[in-house]
Structures are given as structure tokens and as C-alpha cells.
């Protein structure tokens, strides 16, 4: 048996890229000291998210996929596998993207597919969910609203992902937000999606999120690690922090799938057209 120590972060990241890198360096150093091998940072960790979702917000700085900033992130990661969100520039199009790196370089990439409210005014849309191999196992990535769609996680699980990392800038409700953030209905949805996506695909799930406030948005934090039975193994709640859990991933997946294997027991021949 080989256990994997993994962690998901809830932390604030804004437009100050240098300040963001300083925070990332600290988080990675703490993770390394604590024996963490996989560290998930939030959506838009490099340069922050949009100030609002009304379509007119100034966007974050954009970086090319092979930019010095991405190389710097890989250098900071070193022997830790790190995932982080950023604004990607490809030609004239900006994408809400995520990258997985280690000291060896880029291990995987993802462009956010599903765009809530008016996010499409600022970003192009991704077109795929693809798993990839890393030193800590086969991973898949998604960003925020992607997790509201069961097909996203299912596509990654069918592509062999053992662990899915979802990086978010998930805010509290836009209308009638709860005074107590822990009671907010959008936080409730955030938590339900995390557990449901893990359970229905019998995978390990890491959920990182922004914390604090930025522009008009107040983020729900709630970073967590979820096991393949939908059980929450570690959770920051609505405060900034790092949720850390240790698990033998292969054994946990095998145990979860021993009696009822949700992927193997699928009946795609009877599903509606377009449902994978």
C-alpha cells in the first residue's frame, strides 16, 4: 500500500501577481514540510478572478501557456505536484484556465468549459475534459461551474482519472445572501456538488476555492478533500486554510468499487442520445 498526502487550499488571490506568488511560495513550502505531495490552489490564483459576473468587469492579467509565470510556478512546485488557475492568452482569446505543474514542467492543462452568468464576455470556452498521468496518479482538472455538470466529472473518470481537482472562485449567493456564510445556499450547492461528483464516479476529489472578497464577490472558501464514497476527509469550512488528507488512492477506489462499480455498471446503450 502507498498513501498519498494531498491538500486543497482556500485562500484569497487578487490582481497583485507578485503577492500571489509570495502566497503560493508559502503554501507550497508548508505543504512540502507537511509531506503533501499534491496541492490544489484555487481558480485564478495568478492574477485573481473577475470583479463581478455582470459582463463589464476588468479581467486579470493574461499569460501565455509557456510564459515565465507558468515556468516560475513549476519551479516553486519542485517535488510537489501543484494545480492552479490563471487567465490564459492564446492569440487574441483569453481563457479561464488551469495548469498542473511540478519541477519537471507542465503535466496537464484545462480550459473552463461551462461559463456562468456573463463570464463568456471575458473568456473563451474550453472544449474538452482530459485526464493525464502525473507522479501522484492519473489526474483530471475542472474549474468551478464545470462541476455543476455530471458529464464533466464522468468524462474524466471514464478517461481513467483517479483524482479530480476542481479549482473555484465560487461566491456566495447573488441575491439574498446569508449573513452567516456557512448558511449560504450557494455554499450548500458547492458542498453538494463536491460530494456528489466524488460518489457517483467513485473517485477522490480535491476542491480548492478562493476565500475573502474581491470586487462584488464574496467567496465561500470551503476547500475540501472528498473520498470515493462521498465522505469529506478534510474541510476548511468558510475560513481560509488548507484541507489535508492522506489516503491510499488505489485501495480506496478498489474498495469503493468492489460491490457496486458505478463506472463498470453503466448502461450507455439505454441512455438518451448525447448522454455519455
CATH class: Alpha Beta
Are there runs of 5+ residues with pLDDT below 50, and where? none
> Could you tell me the number of beta strands?
15
The CATH superfamily is: Carbon-nitrogen hydrolase
- In terms of DSSP E residues, the strand content is 25-35%
- Structural Rg: 17 Å
> How far apart are the termini?
33 Å
* Domain tally: 1
Count of alpha and pi helical runs: 5
Largest sheet: 13 strands, mixed
Helix/strand-derived class? alpha/beta
Overall mean pLDDT? 97
Shape: globular
Specify the CATH architecture: 4-Layer Sandwich
> What is the chains' assembly state?
single chain
Helix content bin? 10-25%
Briefly note the CATH topology name.
Answer: Nitrilase/N-carbamoyl-D-aminoacid amidohydrolase
Query: What is the H/E order?
Result: EHEEHEEEEEHEHEEEEEEH
Explain what the structure shows.
With 276 residues, this protein is of the alpha/beta class. The protein has one domain (4-265): 4-Layer Sandwich (Nitrilase/N-carbamoyl-D-aminoacid amidohydrolase). The chain is built from five helices and 15 strands. The protein has helices spanning 17-33, 68-77, 150-158, 185-201, 249-256, and strands spanning 4-11, 38-40, 62-63, 81-90, 93-102, 105-111, 132-134, 137-143, 163-168, 204-210, 213-214, 217-218, 224-226, 232-235, 241-247. Strands 1, 2, 3, 4, 5, 6, 7, 8, 9, 10, 13, 14 and 15 form a 13-stranded mixed beta sheet that branches. A two-stranded antiparallel sheet has the order 11-12. It is globular. The two termini are 33 Å apart.
